[in-house]
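Quick one before lunch.
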Amino acid sequence: MNITPPSSPASTLNPGLEPPAVIAPQLASLFADRAARFERLAAGHAAGDWLSFLARLTQVQHELLQRHPVVPLPDAAALEQARRHAMPPLPANGWARDAVWQRHLAILVDRLLPAAPPVLQSTLTTLAALPPAELERLADAVLRTEYDPAQAARLPFIAAALQVYWTWMAVQPALADLARLDVPGVCPCCGSLPVASVIQSGQYAGARYLHCSLCNTEWNLVRVNCSACGETDKVSYRVLEGEAGQHELVRAEVCDDCHSYLKIVHRDKDAAADPVADDLATLALDILVDEAGYVRSGPNPLFVPGEA
Ligand SMILES: [Zn+2]
Ligand SMILES: [Zn+2]
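Model of the zinc ion complex:
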């Protein structure tokens, strides 16, 4: 473990280029890039088989998103009302879900089953046989981040199907130009918690965004600022030590005010780094920070801890 000093908030920003408040996900590349990232991280990793399986799952998410049917979106009045009250227009809790997500789930199960590890085969088979009402109940639990350890094996697949549905909605033109909410720690599109924050590369290099754990929208938040409580003075960083030195690509931003943490993924150091994949490849960092007494402030629903 090492404590590194906070980096300067604006020193690496391009002068004169104001980063947008909200960045919508890239429909064509988001899940394909994530799948490639999982595959790359799997090589030589102690949990390589699992990361490879997640690469296949994410590739199916990509295919589902590319041929997503048109489903209902909020109408103009609902969008205007959300804007006026600074509320997310596609709230994870409250949006009347289209049944399309259950179709996504069925296809995910179908595609993953043949090559799934034996331990997951019965999970997938059981999921495929659940009645729609039970699937909706599990979806409610995922969207409220009420993760029942007894359902730990099933919930990531429910989440993966919901991610496709919400990401499709988030990229539609009707949802463009979202404003920042009054609450900086939740997604301005769907109100979910962030999976991690990312330091951007390219055009907005150095700017920090939170990345939605459900719809993959990113929203701007100044650096060295606890995304859970807004504290700036009691924020510090933890990194993993490896044989090749410190793992600077993924750090944990810990807050000694609210005792929470969230990871920061540095795309500025590797543009292929992904907040979902790199998070799951660095669970050792979670263990280290958990043991130091910090509680993670945002979920990664592709991994739900089971019963001990
Ligand atoms: Zn979202
Ligand atoms: Zn805090």
